[in-house]
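Good morning,

Attaching, inline, the backbone tokens for the sequence recovery test we're adding to the shared suite. The designed sequence is right after.
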């Protein structure tokens, strides 16, 4: 009964905070655009949210591994809710710096929350449940992604930014209440005489020393070097390829979300049958296939082309989800609980950093050569990643305490 209560409280709390974060993330960019009239200013909102993870990540992982994860998560959520109160005084373009400041600190706290969330998950659930729980959370999260943009934008238009902020604060308060219901015995690393930098980098050292995680990290990094190209390329596919408006990208996002739901529902069963590494490799192949279909299907003013491109984006959603869920499960199964926060933070720092650079490079590349070559590069990097994962399969290495 206790384990069931813990599991339910954890899942509902995680989904609540995820919903609130997504609503604010969408609405904040639109709000800044309305206040300033500048697309660039709106884009900076997303930069200030993501950037702290690359700086705070290692320290966040150390904090999560040093203190009880449940209380770290509750504290980070409480601070996030209090922080959002600072947005109530924003009324014009001259106040946008306050939005940036709040979003930047909010992103840093989100990095701490993410590491604590993953660490707590490995305590609440048994190792054989990791794949199913990760798949469930991914499926529901992607399902929310289909409606959250409408909720966030709609709430902003109908009731204003203050209503969006209030909703986000409310989700944090409810989530904190649910996390307080969780009762678990947590093990965390005791203080050591080592320098804090040495302790913070323990997650990186574990990844390097663990063949399975090292293989996954290299392969996913290769893919992320190009996958960010899609952020700009899909606008070019919609406008230059299909001769549609830029807003049509929203249709692609919706179909990718459908694919992600399918992938999330299938991943746990696939991992049970073929393991995390082969599931990740299958995800890579599916990303390559979906990207190729998008490229082949582009033809102006063609209904069949539209169907083909949307089919390709569904496969992209399936592939990315297979890859990410299998990577997360492999991390949880191959990492001692005392290092879980630092290993998760290390992966996030690497992946977010590479993807941010990829997005920036993709914007310039698409402007110079169009969408064809960037998408071809995505296909090639996905195939290279598949080879890196599949040329020799290391045995699963369970975490050792």
């Amino acid at each position: 009964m206790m384990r069931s209560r813990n599991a339910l409280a954890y899942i509902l709390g995680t989904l609540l905070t995820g919903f609130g974060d997504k609503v604010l993330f969408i609405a904040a960019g639109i709000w800044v655009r309305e206040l300033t009239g500048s697309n660039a200013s709106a884009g900076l909102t997303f930069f200030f949210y993501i950037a702290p993870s690359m700086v705070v990540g290692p320290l966040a992982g150390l904090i999560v591994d040093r203190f009880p994860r449940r209380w770290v998560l509750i504290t980070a959520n409480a601070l996030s809710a209090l922080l959002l109160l600072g947005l109530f005084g924003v009324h014009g373009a001259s106040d946008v710096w306050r939005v940036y400041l709040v979003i930047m600190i909010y992103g840093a706290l989100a990095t701490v929350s993410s590491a604590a969330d993953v660490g707590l998950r490995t305590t609440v659930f048994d190792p054989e449940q990791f794949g199913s729980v990760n798949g469930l959370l991914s499926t529901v999260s992607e399902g929310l992604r289909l409606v959250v943009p409408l909720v966030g934008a709609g709430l902003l238009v109908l009731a204003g930014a203050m209503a969006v902020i209030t909703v986000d604060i409310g989700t944090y308060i409810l989530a904190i209440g649910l996390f307080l219901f969780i009762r678990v015995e947590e093990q965390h690393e005791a203080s050591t005489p080592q320098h804090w930098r040495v302790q913070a980098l323990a997650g990186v050292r574990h990844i390097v020393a663990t063949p399975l995680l090292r293989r996954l990290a290299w392969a996913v990094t290769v893919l992320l070097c190009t996958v960010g190209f899609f952020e700009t390329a899909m606008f070019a596919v919609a406008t230059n390829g299909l001769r549609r408006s830029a807003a049509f990208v929203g249709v692609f996002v919706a179909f990718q979300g459908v694919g992600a739901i399918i992938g999330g529902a299938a991943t746990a069963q696939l991992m049970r049958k073929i393991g995390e590494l082969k599931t990740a490799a299958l995800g890579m192949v599916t990303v390559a296939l979906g990207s190729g279909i998008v490229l082949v299907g582009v033809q102006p003013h063609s209904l069949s082309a539209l169907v083909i491109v949307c089919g390709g984006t569904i496969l992209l959603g399936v592939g990315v989800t297979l890859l990410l869920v299998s990577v997360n499960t492999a991390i949880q199964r191959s990492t001692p609980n005392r290092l879980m926060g630092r290993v998760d933070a290390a992966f996030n720092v690497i992946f977010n950093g590479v993807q941010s650079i990829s997005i920036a490079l993709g914007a310039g590349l698409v402007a110079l050569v169009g969408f064809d070559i960037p998408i071809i590069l995505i296909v090639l990097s996905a195939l290279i990643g598949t080879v890196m994962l599949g040329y020799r399969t290391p045995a699963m290495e369970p975490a050792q305490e």
